[in-house]
Design the sequence.
């Protein structure tokens, strides 16, 4: 009996390891698929089948490291343009993911905290999409805020979840 049980369990493990599904799958609602011509800056959902989940803390364009509590003069050399801040954030996001064993295309979800969404969202989204590339759009949420805790001159903070395959 024990031998039959062992054979059955081994067979199940072999079958489970033959799963050919991708680690992450894009979930598109009808009419939002890239082939439909929709130019969506995000994906409706990302389905995770396997991989290591990495949660990234909120990232701003502030230099790392910097003082806590914050010292405003430490940020005087930062470019406070929304696109420039997002560029710095995306570079730091990529660096963080590389340290975790992944890359920027492993991001499956981004939360954007934006000051003056109407004025800044397009520049932020364009810069993010440049880094993600033409074929990758993580799930995304935008939250309009009055100001960031780091310094009132900052316009954007990004928080992300990645699945490293």
Sequence:
């Amino acid at each position: 009996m024990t031998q039959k049980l062992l054979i059955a369990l081994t067979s199940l493990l072999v079958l489970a390891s033959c799963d050919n599904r991708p680690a992450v799958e894009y979930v598109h609602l009808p009419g939002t698929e890239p082939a439909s011509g929709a130019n969506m800056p995000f994906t409706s959902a990302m389905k995770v089948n396997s991989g290591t989940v990495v949660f990234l803390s909120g990232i701003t364009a502030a230099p790392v490291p910097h003082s806590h509590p914050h010292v405003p003069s430490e940020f005087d050399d930062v470019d406070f343009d929304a696109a420039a801040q997002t560029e710095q954030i995306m570079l730091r996001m990529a660096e963080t993911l590389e340290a975790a064993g992944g890359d920027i295309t492993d991001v499956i979800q981004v939360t954007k905290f934006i000051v003056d969404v109407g004025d800044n969202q397009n520049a932020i989204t364009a810069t993010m999409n440049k880094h993600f590339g033409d074929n990758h759009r993580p799930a995304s949420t935008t939250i309009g805020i009055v100001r960031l805790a780091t310094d009132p001159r900052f316009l954007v903070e990004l928080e992300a979840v990645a699945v490293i395959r």
Summary: DSSP finds three helices and six strands in the chain.
